[in-house]
């Protein structure tokens, strides 16, 4: 009987805590954690995700452009991916 009573009390407490956590506060946010201010990168990603700055003009590529892009993609598989990259040679050409 004590176990049932304890589980009823625990269930009631969890439901109350959940209701408080999901109530919007004065800023209109939900939950206990406030959102962080957005960085410029996060704003650009949001614009991209929402498509709010997308062009109204449909952009299409020609068949020749599509063929060149496909060939470039296929050619990229001819270069092996090295097991390890050398440290300290970033941006250098010709191993100098």
Unreliable segments (pLDDT under 50, ≥5 consecutive)?
none
SS summary, helix count: 3
Structural class: mainly alpha
DSSP strand tally:
0
Describe this protein's structure:
With 96 residues, this protein is mainly alpha-helical. The model has no long low-confidence stretch (mean pLDDT 78).
Task: Describe the secondary-structure layout.
Layout lengths: L1 H20 L18 H11 L12 H13 L21
Give a brief rundown of this model.
The chain has 96 residues and is mainly α. The protein has helices spanning 2-21, 40-50, 63-75.
From the structure above, extract its key features.
about 100 residues; 3 helices; mainly alpha
């Amino acid at each position: 009987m004590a176990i049932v009573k304890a589980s009823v009390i625990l269930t009631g407490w969890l439901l109350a805590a959940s209701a408080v956590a999901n109530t919007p506060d004065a800023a209109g946010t939900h939950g206990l954690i406030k959102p962080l201010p957005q960085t410029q990168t996060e704003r650009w990603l949001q614009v991209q995700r929402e498509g709010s700055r997308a062009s109204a003009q449909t952009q299409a590529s020609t068949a020749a452009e599509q063929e060149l892009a496909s060939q470039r993609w296929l050619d990229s598989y001819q270069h092996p991916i090295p097991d390890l990259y050398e440290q300290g040679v970033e941006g250098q050409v010709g191993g100098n």
